[in-house]
Every structure is written in structure tokens, then in C-alpha cells.
Amino acid sequence: ELERSNAELEQFAYVASHDLQAPIRAMTSFAELIGRRYGEQLDERGRKYLGQIITSGEHMKRLVDDLLAFSRVHTAQREPEVVDASEVFDTVRRRLQAAQGAGAQVTRGALPRVLADPYQLDQLFQNLLTNGLKYRREGVEPSVHVWAQREGERWRFAVRDNGIGIERQYWERIFVIFQRLHGREEYEGTGIGLAVCKKIVERHGGRLWVESTPGEGSTFFFTLPAA
Q1: What is this structure's pTM?
Q2: What pLDDT, in 10s, does the model give residues 135-157?
Q3: Domain 81-225 classified CATH 3.40.50.150?
């Protein structure tokens, strides 16, 4: 019964978020059009309100995109296959470095071959590395290092950053969908990324958890089946 309810909820999230994309695009596009064509006729308050509409629309689009990603963990799943985690990591690192530019260190040790959905492993690395770079300490160059250790029939991966860290009381809460510890003014995001990571790892029969020291950084651990 619980599995059926979860499946129905995921299907609802997929349909709702998919159907929301068109009106959100229309709202943002028309607001931008008004700004371009009639911006000079608006007073300062009017331009401010219009800017808030555009900003809110862009945030809603990111929220819908992330909600779709959350629902697709199961609806768009593929059969696990033998995947070289180092190749997936390197692809994600190149993508992040192209977007982030200089000033961020993303490194790894030797990574194994695992049984996984390669697209979801890519998404898992993308979310965890992005988090590690985003929650940086002021005045400290962000650094993320990934390594893995064999544990029986599984590999335990570790993603360590040197960011702001997380208080112990929030170690479970951060994996709940829409839960954020910081306002959007401090750090951008929708509060869905880590929930997606948790679903991906659990879908592969693994576990995801965090250990952290505030002011020093966090290490996210997850397990995947060995190839």
C-alpha cells in the first residue's frame, strides 16, 4: 500500500510539474517583453515589481525542473549496468569547471566500476559536487575531493568538501524534499537536490548519509553495488 501511494505521488508530481512548465515560461516571457517594450514608461516601483515577477518566475522554473528530476528517479529509470565511476566523475567535473571557472578544486582518488544507471550516477555526482562548491566558507577557496573504499559486495564513496559544514541536528533533515537550512538570499537552490540523491542511491539498494563539522566542512557517504 505504501509503495502504491508513493508511486501515485511520484506520478502526480511528474504530471503537475510537467504541466506547469508552459504557463511559467509564458509568464516569464511576457514579463520580460513588458520590460523591454514599456520599461521606460514604468516608474521605479513598477520596474521593481516587474523584476520581482521575473525573478519569481525563474525560481519557479528551477523548482519545477528539480521536481521533475525528483519524480523521474523512478519513472525514467534504466536497468543498472557496469559503469566506470571515474569516467562519470570526470565528465561531471569538466562540466562543472566550465560553468564555475577557476577558483574551485575538484579532485578524486581511484574510483571503481559499479553496477548503476549511468545517467543517475552522473546526476548523483553533479548534485553532490555542486553542493560542495556552493556552500563555501567566506574567504576560502572551495575544494571537493572524492574517493571510494570496498566494503564486501559494495563500494562506499565519500565526497568531502571544505565548506560551512552542517550542525548534527540537521544531518537527517537535509535529505527531506524542500528542506533548506539557508535562505535563497544566502545560497541559491530549491531544497530538492539531496532528496534526489537519496532516491537515486536507495533505488540502487544503497545508503546515503553525511558527517560534518560546522566551520570545517562535510563528507557525504553513499554505497553502490560492486560490478
Answers
A1: 0.71
A2: 888 888 889 999 999 999 999 99
A3: no
